[in-house]
Amino acid sequence: MSLAINKILVAGANANTDGAYFQADSVTVPNTSAYVLTAGTYYVYPTANVVIQVNNNTNGAAFANVYAANAGGLVIADGVNVRLKDFGNAGDVTVNVVTINGGEAASGTYNT
């Protein structure tokens, strides 16, 4: 998952293909626990019994809901203060997300 917003795009490229802007992914939120999103920009799909929370306190103990359960949205995560919280007590939950395509790793500069 990438922090980069600037990308070289290929016209008409579908998600998860070379040159596409978006990359579909999923994360697993443990039963009645939380998953901290890695740094990046995400569209989070609505998921039953999962809320999106942001920490608003310097000691990390004051997470507040910014999206209710079963309500997705656009999320910008810093890798520490944004999490997905499962409160359903029905086992682990898979949350589908779309993030910015990380692209291919470069092996060097000016390779021949």
Quick one: how many beta strands?
A: 8
What gross morphology would you assign?
A: elongated
CATH fold-level label: Jelly Rolls
Q: How would a textbook summarize the main sheet?
A: 4 strands, antiparallel
- What is the strand arrangement across the widest sheet? 1-8-3-6
Strand content: 35-45%
CATH architectural type:
Sandwich
**Given the structure, what is the number of helices?**
0
Structurally, how many domains make up the residues? 1
- Bin the helical content: under 10%
* Name of the level-1 CATH class: Mainly Beta
Distance between the termini: 28 Å
Please give a structural write-up:
The structure is a single chain. This protein has strands at 22-29, 34-36, 40-44, 50-55, 63-67, 73-77, 82-86, 93-100. By secondary structure, the protein is mainly beta. It has one domain (22-100): Jelly Rolls, CATH 2.60.120. Strands 1-8-3-6 form a four-stranded antiparallel sheet, with no helix packed on it. It has a four-stranded antiparallel sheet with strand order 2-7-4-5, with no helix packed on it. Strand 4 and strand 5 (63-67) form a beta hairpin. It is elongated. It starts with 21 loop residues before the first strand and ends in a 12-residue tail after the last strand.
